[in-house]
């Protein structure tokens, strides 16, 4: 089975998205799900191959028009529980 | 695994209970600490403010906490991170996480080198007791100790 590719996206792909990636990684580990989580900036996200995108509410609106994969929006990037509630179902659907 | 960085926020990069009238001023004060450290060129601060104007207030990544930054690149001299707390919180326009009373700013020379600093930051943000101390303290030495413990 191929590894699930998840993209955490923020404005520049170096700050908030990195924090978000850490929390997604922790959540996946707790759920025993293997996936590769990368970060990207909002401009290059649409040309980065992935199966699922996590981002903020503000950027989700911009992204959902330009990408074909599901876009999960999270308002608190350090709240693992919110990340889980928002994204786990979609992740499991892709497995 | 958590790699503990000693003094990942330097004492001179902390300012507590600052008075600002808007979010731009908050980013300016926090960014000035990076500037004083010669970690950025002055225009990096404008870049951070412009980023919020262009991309929205997503830098308020958790309730009451903003992490300002701009793109790694020519305006960054070295990796650095600063934090200020506000006497009166300000709104960034983020419906879920406003108002903000803790503002971090950071600058990175390249995409991945600062990852350990942000890791420390992510752990700090999970610690509600520490965050509460940070919000209310007026003692830089105390904050320096608890952040870097």
From TrEMBL, chain A:
InterPro entries, per database record: PTS_EIIB-like_sf (IPR036095), PTS_EIIB_2 (IPR013011), PTS_EIIB_2/3 (IPR003501)
Gene3D superfamilies: 3.40.50.2300
Superkingdom field: Bacteria
CDD domains reported for this sequence: PTS_IIB_ascorbate
Record's protein name: PTS sugar transporter subunit IIB
Record's keyword terms, sorted: Sugar transport, Transferase, Transport
Entries under SUPFAM superfamilies matching the protein: PTS system IIB component-like (SSF52794)
Broad enzyme group: transferase
GO molecular function, one term: transferase activity
Boundaries of every PTS EIIB type-2 domain copy: 4-95
Biological source species: Terrilactibacillus laevilacticus
EC nos: 2.7.1.-
Lineage: Bacteria, Bacillati, Bacillota, Bacilli, Bacillales
Signal sequence annotation: none
Pfam families: PTS_IIB
Coiled coil: none
